[in-house]
Amino acid sequence: MEDGQIIDLYFQRSEEAIRETEAAHGHKLYTLSYRILLNREDAEESVSDTYLKAWESIPPTRPTYFYAYLAKICRFISFGKLDWKNAAKRKAEVVELTAEMELCIPDLSRQRQLESQELGELLNAFLGTLNEETRKIFMRRYWYADSIAEIAQRYHLSESKVKTQLFRTRNALRVFLEKEGYTP
Amino acid sequence: MNGRELVEAMSHVDEKYISEAEEAPRRRRHWQGLAITAACLALVLVGVWQFRPQLQKDAAPAVGAAQYKAEARSMEEAALDQANDAAPMMVSALSEMTVRVTEQTGEALLCVVTDPGTSDFQPGDLVTITLPGITGTTTETAASETQAPNAPDEDSQPLYLVTFLPDQDAATITPVQLTPIPQE
Description:
The complex is a heterodimer of chains A (184) and B (184).
Chain A: H1 3-11, H2 16-37, H3 40-57, H4 66-81, H5 84-89, H6 93-102, H7 116-129, H8 132-142, H9 148-154, H10 159-182
Helix pairs in contact in A: 1-2, 2-3, 2-4, 3-4, 8-10, 9-10
Chain B: H1 3-9, H2 15-22, H3 30-93, E1 95-105, E2 108-115, E3 126-130, H4 136-145, E4 159-164, E5 172-173, E6 177-181
Parallel strand pairs in B: 3-5
Antiparallel strand pairs in B: 1-2, 1-4, 2-3, 4-6
């Protein structure tokens, strides 16, 4: 079933909407959550919570990108469930991501506190400056938490090419954040 | 702010970027490879075309000689054909008759037609034959033998086969050929 039809079911308050959502996007949502949590039960629970949130928010919201809308909810919930200490012990991919992202922060000693929402807007603005391929690679790595090998396979690139691309993008983000006031 | 917060702040990224990165990657299309091949081929052809005058120049002596010979042969054959075609017409266009020379006056022979042959003359018609139009040994013979008309005996007057163009004044003929007929 097409996304538009599923959304129509939400608007009709039909419970069929949840089943169709699960059929269309359940597996992808579970994969996304599992990458963050590295725990099957927690991932399944996060996906279920995602359906519940979607049911509560649609209507009145009518998402333009239905899967992206669901994935965003799922990601929030998954990070909410994430135990960072356990994740560090299990060497989860997200831990590696945070280490990489630390390099984008201009000067930790002189940083100013930003709300997550405000930082998200800055990231949106930054992503808008990138070309499509670079942006997709960045998103696959830091949003979907894909490994370097997976990104290389997905876009038919060498791993070194992906690493180089990510390195340059992180440096660009660092410069961008500096310009946006992360340095006094 | 730290790397963890930055990773979590990625959850606020616009859904259009999330959706964009989720789309199945575009596979390299076959036509792209074909287009590259076609472009290379076109370049090669352009290169060959550019050097074509030089190649022709190099090949000119051999080709030119062969071509010249062929053309010469062709022209020669054409001329022969034309001559062969024209010869019977000329022969058939000429008239022949037998005359008896009665008197010589300078370069003119006064003759009596003995056998009109293919001409329009009648036996006994008087014609004047001018000698300048006669060529070859036949002329000399005719000229030497034209001394004979001074002889009073008719039987001793020489006979000549006269070949001439029919569209001449009936009274005066400039023969193409004047052949003596031996008398027994």
